[in-house]
Amino acid sequence: MISGKFAITLHILTLLSKFPEEYLSSDFLASSMNINPVLVRKEIANLKKHNIVESREGKYGGSKLCIGSDTITLDDIFKITFETVSLGYCKKDPNPECPVGKKINENLDKLYTDINNNISDKLCQISLMEFTEEF
Fold first, then answer.
1. Is 135 exposed, middle or buried (0-12, 13-18, 19+ CB in 10 A)?
2. Could you give the domains of the chain?
């Protein structure tokens, strides 16, 4: 399902890309988004798991990119936050006797595959560095 995870993650990475030599605290990152630092730390943990950021603790702690912003695409970021977009399915088994019900989820699968291919095609053309340069 669609949530704000991609936007939060991209916001974090854009800030880290703008300040590549600095360790930025989760409080600082959260203040830019007006969200709770816990939500930032959750996404930072995911970015650490994928070797995109490194972190250090303490008074001068925080996180910074551990890869070049020119080496990661928005598609890479999308895939570590979601992997695919899904707008939902029928929650209960639709009526197999109905001409729509028996094929609705199958046709939604085809639609979502097409949407994801289009998203990926667009996002893989934009690096984090290119996105960051717009600020």
1. exposed
2. 5-132 (1.10.10.10)
